[in-house]
Amino acid sequence: MVYGALHKRTGPKHFLFALVALLFLSILVALLYVVLYGSFLKVRDIEINGTRSVSRDSLLASLSTRGVGNSKLLSWLGPDNILFWKFLPNSLSSANILPIVAEAVQNVDLGKRNVTVTIREREGFGTWCAKNGGPTPTVGGYGRASCYVFDESGIAFGTAPASEGVLITEVEDQNSREPLIGISLFPRSAWRNSFFGTLQILKDNGIPISKIIVRDFSLREFEVVSTLGFSFYFSLDFTPDNLNAVLNNLSKQLTLSSLSYLDFRVPNRVYYK
User: Fold this and answer.
1) DSSP code at position 81
2) Nearest CA to 97 among 72, 124, 121, 113?
3) Could you tell me if 158 and 89 are in contact, meaning their C-beta atoms sit under 8 angstroms apart?
4) Which residues contact 31 (CB under 8 A, 6 or more apart)?
5) pLDDT tens-place string over residues 196-241
6) What percent of the chain is predicted at pLDDT more than 90?
7) CB–CB of 213/223 below 8 Å?
8) 116: which residues sit within 8 A by CB, 6+ positions away?
9) N or C: which end of the chain has fewer CB within 10 A?
10) What is the pTM of this model?
11) In b/e form, how buried is each residue of 225-255, taking b as 16+ CB within 10 angstroms?
12) How many other C-beta atoms lie within 10 A of the C-beta of residue 219?
């Protein structure tokens, strides 16, 4: 009898708890439905700025795929939902989108349900030709190295024909590998910085470049062939100290066109012939 009385007293509490839980669950389901399918959260317009060679459809598809693939929440929302773009990182690098896009920044207006995506496309610095890469067809047959266009950060972002002359910088890569589009051409960021830092100083000094030869990375060096008839030898490990001043002094003391090479591969030393 005592047990029965106790059971009757606790029964309403269990019922009330179940009722509250059911009510809470119903509200949660309704809220989830509104968030996922409510028309007031649908994107009205997406504006794309900064494109030159990237199509609107391919860019939006890439951004959408990136968001859906990296977040379960974003995959539930979908790109038609304004919250998808709100929760997407404001700034995305090329590792997350198309190789030719250096950066994409989106701004979201929740009130108007508008999205503005501004992108910065990569600028071609030159062509990088993999000497030991697979052959690509040419007008005369096969045998030319595979070439890629790359930017000043050392990222290959598209295939390119072999270039001639000094208008487009061509790099001959002597490493036994095939570059990957969207990936840095240099295995170490310090080598990349030394490479581009050195080339910028040569450019500032008006040195015309015929081509650049990157040796096997085990040697850590590269050669810059000038149209003046001689070569520069540099290390990938460092940009020579005071290179600008050294070049100015050498141009006053020597006739550069009569040289065979200038060697800067040893720190604080320069050798020439």
Assistant:
1) B
2) 121
3) no
4) none
5) 999 999 999 989 999 999 999 999 999 999 998 899 999 999 999 9
6) 38
7) yes
8) 46, 47, 49, 106, 107, 108, 109
9) N
10) 0.75
11) bbeeebbbbbbbebbbeebeebbeeeeeeee
12) 13
